[in-house]
Amino acid sequence: MNTHKRLVEGMVYNDIKKDYIGSAFGLLWAFVQPVSIIVVLWFVFEIGFKAKPVNDVPFILWLSSGLLPWFYFANTLDKTTNSIISQPYLVEKISFPTLLLPIIKIISEFVLHIFMMGVLASIFLFYDLAIDLYWFQLIYYMFAASVFLMGLGWVLSSFVIFMRDIGNLVPVMVQFCFWGTPIFWALSLVPQKYHFYIMLNPFAFVIQGYRDCMIDKVWFWERGMANLYFWLPAIFFLIFGFMMFNRLKSHFADVL
Amino acid sequence: MRSENAINIKGISKTYHIYKSPMDRLKDSLSLGFKTRHETFEALRNVTFSIMKGETVGIVGTNGSGKSTLLKIIADVVKASSGDVYVNGKVSAILELGTGFNPDLCGIENIYLNGLILGYSRQEISEKVESIVSFSELGEFINRPVKTYSSGMYARLAFSVAINIDPDILIIDEALSVGDAAFQKKCFTKLKELTQSGATVLFVSHSLDSVVQLCDRAVLLDKGSLIMVGETQEVTKEYNQRLFGSVNKQNIESALKSDVFNKVIEDARVAELILKASESLDGGEIFEEVKVSVLNKDEELFETCISGELIFVKIELLSQYDISNLSVAVEVVDKRGLLLTGESTFNKFDKTVSLEKNKKSEFIFSFMSEFIEDDYFIQVRINRITQKDRNDNVLLYIDEHAGKFTLNKNMLNRQWFKVKKNFNIEVN
């Protein structure tokens, strides 16, 4: 167990280092990338379209609070799906606990996500908006997102080895889900009677949850059954993914 | 400590399923439907043996005999279809020229990665990095991405990591042959050090010489089955016999067909006898008697003499048939099975010898025993050969232990090397 922990730590470090530390500006890029997207959006919507504040919160903060968890989802799905086919040297030549590969990618992306959330929190403070108790619920929603990604990651990363098409299908699905999830549009714009169906989308549950913490100030238990509708498929995927992965992993070396 | 087993293998089989497409494999492994969508290939069949701690064991066999599959199963890269594998300790493996190196990371980073995978902490690896880097002699390249390495450099890094990381069990598959001679020698020395400190080494190589030099015991595989486990010398002997056997067969079949062979054959039955002998390698029914005696300089039977003295090998042959085109050879083999030197009648006189029915022939070979003090074997071979280029060379008889002698230290004229060659030295 301890060796696995060290292994995961080391590989997460390598992951982050490879993407950022190796370049001249280092970790600055991890900062520049999301900030530049946010700045562009801010410019387009607040200066260009004169978007109105939502719930007395500047539009840009409202948008970012949905966009950042979405980035976490989208990037992690991409990385975990390819976590095994992109590292065949860990499967063919040595004995490596492959079950850890998707987990390592999730943790690397999570570290970056936390970092970006820190940046967002400081913008909130910059606008003189308090960081209150509601923010602590973020832990719950981050956990929820990660569990969901874990199950999905095990399923996708093992299936893609046999069906390479999945690698192309995932980004398309992610794009599709982006517009089906209340990120660029507020849940409140949709008539109440449809909320139930929208919240069946696990992405919607998490992203609305982030907004509940930072903007709308809603406790998670006030969402009631939506919690259950999220956790049922999430746990199903977790168990299903774990079982599939274990069943398929002995074939990895033969197919890669 | 030594009696403890490092590796226990019980009834291991490995059946590869061969699929037309990965999709079929997925469907099969999820057991969708009752149809099987694969053909099978048995790479290993019910293999059982165990290896003690501190042993160096070689695995020999022809291509496709299952050596690599066996190593992969022990290294836990591939799962056995059935049977039990018990491996006691940290395993470091170099399989088919590569360990788990990330091509984008530099040498140093890969050393850390490999160490972590083997279960070491960052700090433990830091202590070893220096020795690994200096062992690899990669210099500047150690800080460059592994994808820029040549295959030799890659092998160097793989070897340096695997050897210097203090594994309990080291598995090496063919990898040694890539490095240059100097590096190979360094690896051999280090391997010996490792085994002396109690590590277990499993070694696959096509070069029987390195198996003989390194290994205490050997395992012989053929077509996925275990043929034998035992002393290196016995196993390599068996392996050679099988290898020669099949080469022999090819040679003799083509020779029997060729006109040359038919012209020189005196008796139609002899051809058949030759074929038989080439399978059993004990001369079959051709030779009534093959008597070998090893004699000292006074032409007396002996067991021990002083290094450098003259030795006679007398071979008495009695044939039941008229048979021509033979070559008789005497070779000196050390106790680990390494062929040191030898001579044959065909080689010496450039022509073959003939035997007459029921008439005793005597061949006396003599040589100076200029070898280092040790035990040696005399190997006697009889070949049938007609072509100068030896392409119809057929082995009829081989006795690896036709004779034995022990050399003692020559105090007057010390022998410093395994085999003495005469050198000319000119000083100007």
Secondary structure elements and pairings:
The complex is a heterodimer of chains A (256) and B (428).
Chain A: H1 2-21, H2 28-48, H3 59-81, H4 89-92, H5 100-126, H6 138-162, H7 165-180, H8 192-199, H9 202-216, H10 225-255
Helix pairs in contact in A: 1-5, 2-3, 2-5, 3-5, 3-6, 3-7, 3-9, 5-6, 6-9, 6-10
Chain B: E1 5-19, H1 22-29, E2 38-52, E3 56-60, H2 67-74, E4 82-87, E5 91-94, H3 107-117, H4 122-136, H5 151-164, E6 169-173, H6 181-196, E7 200-204, H7 208-214, E8 217-222, E9 225-231, H8 232-257, H9 259-264, H10 268-280, E10 287-295, E11 304-306, E12 310-319, E13 323-334, E14 339-344, H11 345-349, E15 353-355, E16 360-368, E17 375-384, E18 394-408
Parallel strand pairs in B: 3-7, 3-8, 5-6, 6-7, 11-18
Antiparallel strand pairs in B: 1-2, 1-4, 8-9, 10-12, 12-16, 13-14, 13-15, 13-17, 17-18
Overall description:
The complex is a heterodimer of chains A (256) and B (428). Chain A is an all-alpha fold. Helices cover 74% and strands 0% of the residues of chain A. Chain A has ten helices and no strands. In chain A, 35% of the residues are buried. With 428 residues, chain B is an alpha/beta fold. Chain B is built from eleven helices and 18 strands. Chain B has helices at residues 22-29, 67-74, 107-117, 122-136, 151-164, 181-196, 208-214, 232-257, 259-264, 268-280, 345-349; strands spanning 5-19, 38-52, 56-60, 82-87, 91-94, 169-173, 200-204, 217-222, 225-231, 287-295, 304-306, 310-319, 323-334, 339-344, 353-355, 360-368, 375-384, 394-408. In chain B, strands 5-6-7-3-8-9 form a six-stranded mixed β-sheet, sandwiched between helices. In chain B, strands 11, 13, 14, 15, 17 and 18 form a six-stranded mixed β-sheet that branches. In chain B, helix 6 links the parallel strand 6 and strand 7 (200-204). The longest helix of chain B is centred in the middle third of the chain and has 26 residues, at 232-257. The radius of gyration of chain B is 26 Å and the shape is globular. Chain B starts with a strand and ends in a 20-residue tail after the last strand. The interface between A and B is medium-sized, with 28 and 33 residues.
